[in-house]
Specification:
HTH_AraC-typ_CS; single chain; about 15% strand; alpha+beta; DNA-binding transcription factor activity; Beta-Lactamase; Arc Repressor Mutant, subunit A; DNA-binding; 5-stranded antiparallel sheet
Length: about 250
DNA sequence: GAGCAAGCGAGCATGCGACA
DNA sequence: TGTCGCATGCTCGCTTGCTC
């Protein structure tokens, strides 16, 4: 099982250090996480070049550097998330270019630096404080918060609020607000919205529902607000997210 | 149909004191 | 230590209206 938090943190650090965008996919082509100037990263990947072709070439020839079909001198590097097991998923690093003034403003990286780029990614991955990750994984919630999360997970599609969950737990709402934030690290509303956004992702990519339908299905009262919240958590509008996924299927 | 910006009001987050 | 009630500032949810 891939630890998404670990991957996400590694990618953020890699992007900070190198200024190169990076995206992670599982082996079904489903995006796990992205870091960098995300919109550009998605825009310049295209169906014929990137995911399927990269995977095939990597399996067949061990080739891990790919040119963009859309733009000259724009390249991507493929790297397995786990070097010993490509079935854990892949990183796609880029766009990068060997021309300083390229058409899309991709970072300039001469080819002889590619191996260093990959090495630095491996080093970050290796050095990232695993203790922190384990602590996150093993974090236990109090009974109140466990019950609250169960309740939210079963009722997120309804118009639930802080009041309702506090009543369900038979505790004061201000007290619930306090302990919820102290244990989960985010406010009740934030948690609920994030859950709704996560649930909506599968509806966006697997079904042909309209944005309004999906917004209503996961508990948002209108499409506009759904757009705002979706973009807040993913950096993409729901439509962009659907397009991205469609590209890889 | 989808995205975006602005404005407004509701209600959330928070701090504090009190109580068991 | 755990819980509750209250007050208050301000964040966020939502609507409206517009463009593409």
């Amino acid at each position: 099982m891939i630890n998404k938090l670990h991957i996400s943190n590694v990618m953020k650090k890699f992007n900070l250090l190198t200024n190169i965008s990076i995206i992670a996919f599982d082996l079904n082509g489903v995006p796990i996480s992205a870091s960098g100037y995300g919109k550009t990263l998605y825009d310049f990947l295209d169906k014929n070049t990137i995911y399927d072709k990269m995977i095939n070439n990597y399996f067949n020839d061990g080739e891990n550097i790919f040119n963009s079909n859309c733009y000259n001198n724009i390249e991507y590097i493929l790297s397995p998330i786990c070097p010993r097991n490509i079935y854990r998923g892949i990183f796609i690093i880029g766009p990068i270019s060997q021309k300083k003034n390229n058409c899309i403003g991709a970072p300039y990286k001469p080819k002889h630096l590619y191996s260093y780029i990959l090495k630095s990614l491996r080093l970050i991955f290796k050095d990232f404080p695993k203790k922190h990750i384990e602590m996150e994984k093993e974090k236990e919630y109090s009974l109140h918060i466990k019950k609250a999360i169960d309740y939210i997970d079963s009722r997120y599609m309804d118009n639930i609020g802080l009041d309702e969950v506090a009543n369900y737990l038979n505790i004061n709402k201000s007290y619930f607000s306090t302990i919820f934030k102290s244990e989960t690290g985010e406010s009740f509303t934030n948690f609920l919205n994030r859950l709704r956004v996560e649930k909506s992702k599968s509806l966006l990519v697997n079904k042909d529902y309209s944005m309004l339908d999906i917004a209503l299905m996961v508990g948002f009262s209108n499409q506009n607000y759904y757009n705002i919240i979706f973009k807040k958590f993913t950096s993409y509008t729901p439509l962009q997210y659907r397009k991205v996924y469609t590209v890889y299927n």
